Amino acid sequence: METERLQAPDGCVRLLQITDTHLFANADSQLLGVRTADSLAAVLERVQSNAHPFDCILATGDLSQDHTAESYQRFATMMAPLGKPIYWLPGNHDDAPLMTQQLYEAGISEAKWLVGEHWQIILLDTQVRTKPHGVLADHQLAALDHALRTHPDKHALIALHHQGVPVGCAWLDQHNLKNADDMFAVLARYPQTRTLLFGHVHQEFDEVHRGIRLIASPSTCIQFKPLCDDFTLDESGPGWRYLTLHPDGRIDTQVWRLPAGSFIPDSQARGY
User: CATH for 13-257?
Assistant: First the structure.
């Protein structure tokens, strides 16, 4: 994995998580009644105006909805005014080779392993081409093992797209990380603080499983209603997450959202 130095001027690493933007080539295109470019623009406007500090951005997949070069160019252009390093991974809706090319050409780092004084951040690819569920390939599991073995003294934040445990939505949990047990087996070999951060589920989630904290965040566009067996959209506003990684392994985190009633999706939708 390509490695970069993780910046933490005062010992704390401050992150902004942006996930599931589902952008299109056409800025007017909608996902279930929401113009995704408009909702992302509104999120980024709030991020810039609320003065909450962050050192870098983690973009945890499904950046595109239509697999176009223009959608990734749009993402890069919209994120540029934030002026912070962006690190990314693909989701099930992304075209990973095209994503890699377009984001690289836009000057966005390809690094998937960020190493600092107290923390390391490992970005993993769970995509299975043309499938909604996720799998960690053997080389991804090996990369995770290598990173944790290399820095056993550093706390670890592992970013991925798919959920490693059920979030309580039957329709969505069938599209989970299929070999999560293999991932947990790797994590169990190392004693440092381990936290998983993911997207995909378009809702807030924060639970501990096998001693590992799992955190998910809302999408910048449509939201899925928690604890629903069947596909159900939520009218909660588009959101984003801040995280502060402390030197002692603690993580403080907050989800922010646009006001309720912002970008209400099509309530009659039964899937996408």
Answer: 3.60.21.10
Residue list for the binding site for Fe cation: 20, 22, 62, 92, 161, 200, 202
Annotated binding site: 20, 22, 62, 92-93, 161, 200, 202
CA angle 240, 245, 250 (to 5 degrees): 115
| Angstrom distance (rounded) from CA 18 to CA 235 | 19
**Which has more pLDDT, 11 or 74?**
74
Task: Summarize pLDDT for 204-260 with one digit per residue, the tens.
Answer: 999 999 999 999 999 999 999 999 999 999 989 999 999 999 999 999 999 999 998
Residue partners of 147: CB distance under 8 A and separation at least 6: 1, 113, 120, 122, 156
Residue ranges per structural domain of the chain = 13-257
- Cα–Cα distances (Å) from 253 to 173, 264, 272, in that order, read 24, 25, 30
Contacts of 184 (CB under 8 A, 6+ apart): 164, 209, 210, 212
Q: Pick the closest to residue 13 from 191, 216, 251, 196 (CA basis).
A: 251
**What is the reported pTM?**
0.95
Residue position matching structure tokens 């997450």: 241
pLDDT, the chain, mean: 94
CB 91 within 8 A of CB 200: yes
Known binding positions for AMP: 22, 62, 92-93, 202
